[in-house]
Amino acid sequence: MERTMNAGPDLATLATAVGDATRIRMLELLMEGRALVAKELAFGTGVSPATATAHLQRLEQARLVRSTRQGRNKVFRIATPTVARMVEALMTVAVRGPRVSATPEPLRAARYCYDHLAGRLGMGITDALLRAGHLSLRKRAFALTPSGEAWFQDFGIDLASVREQRRHFAHRCLDWSERRDHLAGALGAALAARVFSLGWVERQRDSRGLIVTPGGQRGLKRHFGVL
Question: Does the pLDDT at position 213 exceed 90?
Fold first, then answer.
């Protein structure tokens, strides 16, 4: 039987969807992890609201973003954690030499990578958990050790609820600025949410960057040895 050339994944359609400067910038903005309205994405990409809407329709058709209603507004977010990993991987591939040093310092210091902590803050926390023996390395993921089970529970994270999520539990995500893996997946998201709920970090306006609060500096140093 003659083999068809289009039997595999439709990479061409995906490449077309992300191969536009405005659309890839929209995905980058949505990597903050927050839902944004079309007007915010239009402002962030420097296009008109009508043009932004057309681009968002294209991204939604490609299942890269999803929209929901919040009152009178239609908001957009990254469709799945898998899409977020794809965007982060593209950033890693795109970074070459001086581009890393040209990255704004606040983004390199601490940022959200979709829904988990990245930059030097995310790496510092991951390294501390590895040194303490709470995490161990696997081929494509981190594994939670017995001491890690106790530590995360004591830190206020409901591991049973985390494990119920239909996504990778402790994914290894390559940090595009630090060039090493940090903790992602459901566990990484739960850890980031806990750090945020403690008031240790605050979002920067219109940026993926995070501000570490004075209380956060004390807490991060006490628990992870991270400043």
Answer: yes
